[in-house]
Amino acid sequence: MSDIQIGMSKRARRTYSLDDIALVPTRRTRDASDVDTSWQIDAFKFDTPLIGAPMDSVTSPATAIALGKLGGLGVLNLEGLWTRYEDPQPYLNEITAMPVDNPIAATCRMQEIYAEPIKPELITARLSEIRESGVIVAGSLTPQNIQEHYETVVKAGVDIFVIRGTTVSAQHVSQNREPLDLKKFIYELDVPVIVGGVAGYTPALHLMRTGAAGVLVGFGGGSAMTTRRGLGIHAAMATAISDVVQARSDYLDESGGRYVHVIADGGQGRSGDIVKSLALGADAAMIGAPLARAEEAPGRGLYWGNEAHSPEYPRGVRTSLEVVGPLEEVLYGPSHHVDGTSNIVGGIKRAMATCGYTDLKSFQRSEVTLIPYGG
Amino acid sequence: MSDIQIGMSKRARRTYSLDDIALVPTRRTRDASDVDTSWQIDAFKFDTPLIGAPMDSVTSPATAIALGKLGGLGVLNLEGLWTRYEDPQPYLNEITAMPVDNPIAATCRMQEIYAEPIKPELITARLSEIRESGVIVAGSLTPQNIQEHYETVVKAGVDIFVIRGTTVSAQHVSQNREPLDLKKFIYELDVPVIVGGVAGYTPALHLMRTGAAGVLVGFGGGSAMTTRRGLGIHAAMATAISDVVQARSDYLDESGGRYVHVIADGGQGRSGDIVKSLALGADAAMIGAPLARAEEAPGRGLYWGNEAHSPEYPRGVRTSLEVVGPLEEVLYGPSHHVDGTSNIVGGIKRAMATCGYTDLKSFQRSEVTLIPYGG
Amino acid sequence: MSDIQIGMSKRARRTYSLDDIALVPTRRTRDASDVDTSWQIDAFKFDTPLIGAPMDSVTSPATAIALGKLGGLGVLNLEGLWTRYEDPQPYLNEITAMPVDNPIAATCRMQEIYAEPIKPELITARLSEIRESGVIVAGSLTPQNIQEHYETVVKAGVDIFVIRGTTVSAQHVSQNREPLDLKKFIYELDVPVIVGGVAGYTPALHLMRTGAAGVLVGFGGGSAMTTRRGLGIHAAMATAISDVVQARSDYLDESGGRYVHVIADGGQGRSGDIVKSLALGADAAMIGAPLARAEEAPGRGLYWGNEAHSPEYPRGVRTSLEVVGPLEEVLYGPSHHVDGTSNIVGGIKRAMATCGYTDLKSFQRSEVTLIPYGG
Amino acid sequence: MSDIQIGMSKRARRTYSLDDIALVPTRRTRDASDVDTSWQIDAFKFDTPLIGAPMDSVTSPATAIALGKLGGLGVLNLEGLWTRYEDPQPYLNEITAMPVDNPIAATCRMQEIYAEPIKPELITARLSEIRESGVIVAGSLTPQNIQEHYETVVKAGVDIFVIRGTTVSAQHVSQNREPLDLKKFIYELDVPVIVGGVAGYTPALHLMRTGAAGVLVGFGGGSAMTTRRGLGIHAAMATAISDVVQARSDYLDESGGRYVHVIADGGQGRSGDIVKSLALGADAAMIGAPLARAEEAPGRGLYWGNEAHSPEYPRGVRTSLEVVGPLEEVLYGPSHHVDGTSNIVGGIKRAMATCGYTDLKSFQRSEVTLIPYGG
């Protein structure tokens, strides 16, 4: 695989982003109305393979409920404003009101706002609110905070537990503290766990062996560029998804039949990106920006990730997005936008139909091409 | 062909756009005045291999007539303003008057304007107007609307029937309705049929087997970028043309001599692009933007495609183009523009002569090179 | 060589521009003061391998003389303003006064100004003026005008005769007129002939067989971009030079010792570009823009080529360049510019010394690398 | 290695910049707090592998001391303003006050300011000032000035002697003067010598054989772009570092155990770039821009290199950088910047931990990938 000689002492493998590839129709076309985009993880079935990212600019209890009612899954960030403040609205107002052209001041203020401790009772309250609506309940913690808060989460009741950090490995080593034993943790938990980000065949295979129901592919979503600039770390998404899909297949073999779901997480700002993730083999897509463009989004047209307010090493900035319309229109149209930001499910169905597929599993076999850069 | 490893579970083929290639002169040069650009499809012979795209911003009955008189072929969109409105001018005026910097409002209004039903009597009237001028008559329908309107078209009389959608396959499968049997349709029709868009060897070969006289290579013309962003689908034109040219050659063999014309449709904004299409083996070029730059163009310097007003999933925006001069000057000069937008036929002839060719068929054997991106 | 599959029916060779490559120093360095940049063609020896392009914005009789006195060779365009007008200054004034943001009006006016016929007596006068200064005299004609004017040129007396067009082949074929028999023409002429542009091994080899003393590599100089857009024709300079250098070597063999000089012509806007041409094997560089930046340049900071006023198919626009300083400073410094536009000879010497070479012939063996695009 | 055919007569090797690569985490992650970034050259040990470049905009005696106290090494340029002027502050004020949009005037004035001769007594005074602070003392001379000034330097006392030019070879050849015999010079000197820039395996191996304790990889730092434009010379950093690392390894073998340190010098504007250099095998990074962004930096937010005021052939311009905060914050945070300009050591530690490493030597074995350009 490492077939490129960077210099005499180092080889590297060439990797590809979603922008580098495109789908090609085959000799058969279908009706978009015949396409079924449903998928299932554990006992939970969804009409559409879209998962709302646990980011405060994307998912509030209210939008988690709305997304659930529209056939997707909203994941609440259990370390965000809703579990730090009884009434997060003034803080959201403040964050969304800060001008985007002064990122340093905004980063400082966000670091202050997010310094407020997480309140277990708010975790309980937020999850209950979602559960009462009748939709499937999912919340996320970072690996760093799991040991402190997972019992609260489990007691409050979640259907799906998400462990999400920039990079999560199955084998975290620490000299000063007992790290989380992910395998034991997942084994003892009653609910299915989705865990990531991860990229690469071997790290993903190890994560699958922990018993996770799903893995998140990608590092950092909205902060990918600053992660690359600051840390030199980057996972080109097309390659990352395809590698983890191979791990899924090999783990299915080795485990005698456990199918771990692969969820693309990052770099999917438009419906065409989601289409490509699914064609590369992802079972579902965790998305941020597309949902942050909905009228109901807590970020009100601003978009930021969880790394943006890290106290030591913040990454990612608030980005201004165009508000497209109500969430339902964002997902199902009718669209008046021509850039893949509206009628996302319609776009997925149309793409699948044009390429001759009517279900997600067979769509994973799609032929893709490498297109001229920016082409 | 799929020799690039995107990731461990997916391979892809590298594809090329027209911008990626250039022609190289050989050891012999010719006089441009000795070059013959004529071509023939079925019984119809043309001085120049240029076909006006069936788009409302490009081809009106009047410009179809003008292009025919100047040696090309104009194809009227039979689902556009001219068949929806007795007098389309006020709607054209309105569309061309909307500012380009508010694309959403423009898309909404275009969706409303194009919601007006197609009137069979206007199909008849527009085709008659073109026929009366004495030029070759061609009109286009999308696959979706053929069954409803083709009898009107046939009765009104066309010399060449064009079936044009973003992607047209020979084998459309539908669960809820009887899809168009393209082979049977073409067989029973009396006039030659040009059908597309298509890309790829196999889809093109199947389309040729339906009995089509010509196939259109490419997806969506002016909306290619938004098709890529929204649907993740893209056909890099140089590769697409070259693949379909191979299908032409293999079908010629398999059919014992049927030559199906390959018509490049999309991405040919300047004369150099058309030159490249022809050098890659296309028999003719269906063009939009170059003709939309003519003073007579109905779009008056604005350019939009048929996907721009799709009610469910619009793609492509109105683009502002520089008005270059009268149609005759656009085609035959004299040119005062240095960017390949004027004296297009002169440019084609000069390029062919510089590379040592005097007819289109031998020009298809041209040597091409891959040039540095953007180079 | 054609190892890239553009599509199933067409292969292509990958080509490289000067921007794609860079030099790498070896284990030895030299003093710049030890470097000798002299070169010789036929009986004529020059201190520096720089030839002023025959363009009205670059070379007047006065700057041809100045360049000659500074160790280079100025070539007067014998079809430019100086041979069309007794006093060209008002026309130069007019051309340089037209705003660059209205290229169409400028193209029209230049087409008018250059419609004035060439006057044989002015050819004679201009060449005499240069000859009287004592420098080596060189003038250029296009292939189209040679038969009409060459006797005037020969009678007026030139040391080096230049035949320069966008593309010049050894075998021009015409149905309506007797084309120039280049081989016979050169054989009968008493003075050495430099001819081009050409690109590619075979066309260059044929041109060398005509008896030319030198060939110009490249198409169109300042109009390369518009030639690509309008005609689809492009020669990536690094590849073109290297191919023609191979032809030089093979022709040296086949002819039993005739060394035809290879002169890079086009795309050399900065000293680094000239350095790369020489490292790729060129014997000298014909340059336009670098000299157009001299205070004495007739274009007064504006730069345009001979294709810019073509009556039928103009290509290239007037470009605004920064005026750097007197011609002597442009060539020999001292430099106060950091972008390779000043002290060009100093830059060449410094580059050669850094790479360990002290003469041009051995510098042609330099190692080059492919650098990241735009890198 | 030279596997790309530029043209028929020239092959080239493809090279890569730091922007072309990225790190990929492995299956194991670590705690950032467990990471040790210390390194040692000769008898000198440092907490952090960061060396301040000897440039007047980056390193003054005061910032050399500050950097030393913070665990790094500051190298004073012994040919800069501090050794030309008793009080350099007025000249620094003048240089930093000149507008960046008039680079020619600034270059001229800098050429004047730097025309002032170097004063041996100021060399002595500046080095003494640093020594008195208790930090490790390092000063740099160019190869051209070593013979004149090295005795002053040695007498004043330095711990580490740096010889730094754009390109330094072990075998400089001159016809008119006795060049520096680097091997003899280093052998006779009592202190360890770091020498460069160099790129390429063979030149680096020869430089290692001179007895140098370390080599600087790269040409020209802040002036790399203008070196490429003016001289056509460029070293893509990722390839350059990897090649010199191979030379280090082979020289270790051939010398029976001498480990020459490889120090990346150039193109490392953000922490991610430094991370990549270390992952490619560099032992340390010489940095300019990141330190020029500190509040204490003498350039006060402006950044220029030593080539910017070359009397004959200036290269590089003053660039305006954002002032990030105090030097300590630039190195150790806490960061409020999301672009890799603050908490640089924190960024390095976090990257190493994420990739599963806790010391620099094993980090050199990191896996890297080639990422899509600009990706």
Q: Please, could you describe this protein's structure?
A:
4 copies of one chain form a homotetramer. Chain A is built from 15 helices and 18 strands. Chain A is α/β, with parallel strands linked by helices and 375 residues long. In chain A, strands 7-8-9-10-12-13-14-15 form an 8-stranded parallel β-barrel, surrounded by 5 helices. A two-stranded antiparallel sheet of chain A has the order 1-2. In chain A, helix 11 links the parallel strand 14 and strand 15. Chains in contact: A-B, A-D, B-C, C-D. Chains B and C meet through strand 3, strand 4, helix 10, helix 11 and helix 14 of B and strand 1, strand 2, helix 4, strand 11 and helix 8 of C.
CATH homolog superfamily of chain A = Aldolase class I
Query: Quick check: average pLDDT of chain A?
Result: 94
Helix content of chain A: 25-40%
What spatial order of strands do you see in the largest sheet of chain A? 7-8-9-10-12-13-14-15
The interface involving the most residues is between: A-D, 62 and 61 residues
Radius of gyration of chain A: 20 Å
The dominant shape of chain A is globular
Please, what is the oligomeric state? homotetramer
Report the sheet with the most strands of chain A, covering strand number, pairing sense and barrel closure.
Answer: 8 strands, parallel, barrel
GO biological process, one term (chains A, B, C, D): GTP biosynthetic process
GO molecular function (chains A, B, C, D): IMP dehydrogenase activity
Domain IMP dehydrogenase/GMP reductase (chains A, B, C, D): 16-303
Family (chains A, B, C, D): Belongs to the IMPDH/GMPR family.
